[in-house]
Amino acid sequence: MTLPKVTVVGAGQVGATTAFLLLNKGIADVVMVDVAEGLPQGKALDMMHSRSVERFAPVVTGTNDYADTAGSDVVVVTAGLPRKPGMTRDDLLAANGAIVRSVIGAAVEASPDAIVICVTNPLDVMTYLAWRVSGLPAERIFGMGGVLDSARFAYAIAEETGAGIDTITALAVGAHGDAMVPLPRHSTVAGTPLTELLTPERIGALVKRTIFGGAEVVALLKTGSAFYAPAASVTAMVEAVLGDTGAVLPSCVHLDGEYGISGVYMSIPASLGRQGVRGVVEIDLDDVELAALQASADTVAEAVSALGL
Ligand code: APR
Is pLDDT of 1 > 80? Predict the structure, then answer.
C-alpha cells in the first residue's frame, strides 16, 4: 500500500518530533528537509534505526534538496529560529520572515498540490506571509496555533480541577501569542462550562497560564522553545487532513468576514480535510469575547503590516 507523503521543512526540535510522531502513527512516509547538512539525514537514520523496535510501516528520509520532497500531500513548515528566553514571538518576525519566504517557494514548487501547514513563529504572521508568497488558495494553507493553545488550556484546567484530561474540552482562539483568547465559556469539564465551575479569579489565573504557557516552557528550557506539544498538535492536524476526517480543530485560517474580521490569519475552529480547510465553524461569542477576538486580530494585522507586503 502506498502511503501519503508528508514533507517536514526544518528538522529541528519541532520538525523531527513531528516526523517521529507521524511515523509511529503509521500514517505517512516522511521527508525532512533542512539547510543544515547532515542534520535531517542523521535524524532520519536514527528514526529508521528504531523501526524494527517500534514496528512502524512508513519510511523517513532526510535531505537538503527539495527535489526529494516532490509530490508531497502535506508540507509542514517548521523552519526558523525558536524563541530564546526573554524573546517574544514577534521578535522572531524579521528573522523567520526571511526563512519562510525562502522555504515556501521551494516547497510549493516541488509539491504544487500539497496542503501546507505552518508552525514557524510568530505563527499568524508567518502563515499570512506563507499564503501570500505561495500563491495558494487560502483553504490550502493554514497554521498550527489554536490546537496547541487549547491543549495548554486543557492542561491548566486539569491541573486546577484534578479532572481527567479526557473529560476536558478546552478552546483558545485568536492570535498565537500574548493576544490569545482562551474561551472559558466554551471550555468544559465533563460537559459543564468552566464559568459554572470556578471563580472568575481562578479562571483568570488559568487563562494567564495558558497565554504564557509557551513562555513558561522557554524559561525552564533556557535554550530553545516548546516542541513536544507543538509537534503533537500539528500531527493531529496532518491526521485530519490525510484521513479527510472533517475534524473541527482550532486552526490558524484566513478570515474573510467571519466574526466581522477580514484579511488576517488567526486561529478559530475550522473543519479540516483532504482539500484543506473545509469551512470555518462560527461559534457563538458574547460581546466581550467578540471584542477580545477583534482586538487579537488587530495585533496580527499590525504585525502583518510591518512585513510591508
Ligand atoms: N530552510 C530549511 N530549514 C531551515 C532554514 C531554511 N532556510 N533555516 C533554518 N532551518 C532549520 C534549522 O537548521 C533547524 O534545524 O530549522 C530548524 C529549526 O529547528 P530548531 O532550531 O530546533 O527550532 P524548533 O524548536 O524546531 O522551532 C522551529 O517552530 O514552534 C516554532 O517558534 C518555533 O519558529 C520556531 C519553529
Answer: no
Distance 185 CA to ligand 1 centre (A): 35
In the block, cell 499564503 appears at: 131
Is 89 a residue whose pLDDT tops 80? no
Written as one letter, the residue type at 229 is A
CATH number of the domain located at residue range(s) 146-306 in this protein: 3.90.110.10
CB distance 5 to 72 below 8 Å = yes
8, 13, 100, 218: which to mutate for ligand 1, most atoms within 8 A of CB? 13
End-to-end CA distance of the chain: 43
CB of 272 closer than 8 Å to CB of 240: yes
Question: Which residues have C-beta atoms less than 6 Å from ligand 1?
Answer: 9-15, 34-36, 39, 78-80, 82-83, 96, 99, 102-103, 119-121, 224-225, 227, 230
Give the CATH fold of the 5-145 domain.
Rossmann fold (3.40.50)
Rounded to two decimals, what is the model's pTM?
0.97
The residue contributing the CA closest to ligand 1 atom 36 is: 120
Does position 33 have pLDDT exceeding 80, yes or no? yes
Average pLDDT over all residues of the chain:
96
DSSP string covering 70-97: TT-SEEEE--SPPPPTT--GGGGHHHHH
Tens digit of each residue's pLDDT (9 = 90 or more) over 129-170: 999 999 999 999 999 999 999 999 999 999 999 999 999 999
- Whose C-alpha lies nearest to ligand 1, atom 20? 12
Question: Which residues of the chain does CATH 3.90.110.10 include?
Answer: 146-306
pLDDT at 263: 94
Q: Where in the chain is the domain with CATH 3.40.50.720?
A: 5-145
